[in-house]
Specification:
By secondary structure, this protein is of the alpha+beta class. Helix content is 11%, strand content 21%. It is built from two helices and three strands. It is flat. This is Phage protein. InterPro entries: Gp18_domIII_N. Pfam families: Gp18_domIII_N.
Length: 102
């Protein structure tokens, strides 16, 4: 008997519905080169730590952003040629402020 994991049950026509899933694959061709290191300012994880991501890893689970999100543009571009990306989250803190005293 066919089965699957369904997120909702809003079927409008009677019949057989099959939910299939395949192995994760990268959005681009697998890179020819080795490793890329990228420093990014993001709102996830520990500051000043290196996170290693390999082709095929679930980026959304690791970083909290989908690979198609604008924040992940550099990561997506790096995976076009690299097999491994090492992300370094820049130090957290407050932005520089200035005031004029008169």
């Amino acid at each position: 008997m066919a089965g699957g994991t369904w997120e909702n049950q809003n079927k409008v026509r009677p019949g057989v519905y099959i939910n299939t899933a395949s192995e994760r694959k990268s959005m681009t061709a697998v890179g020819e080169r080795g490793t890329v290191a990228i420093p990014l300012t993001l709102g996830w994880g520990q500051a000043k730590e290196v996170l290693t991501i390999h082709v095929g890893d679930d980026v959304k689970e690791l970083l909290g952003y989908d690979i198609t999100a604008p924040e992940m543009l550099l990561v997506k571009e790096a995976f076009k040629r690299a097999k491994t990306v090492k992300l370094y989250r820049l130090a957290e803190g407050t932005k520089a402020q200035a005031s004029m005293g008169m």
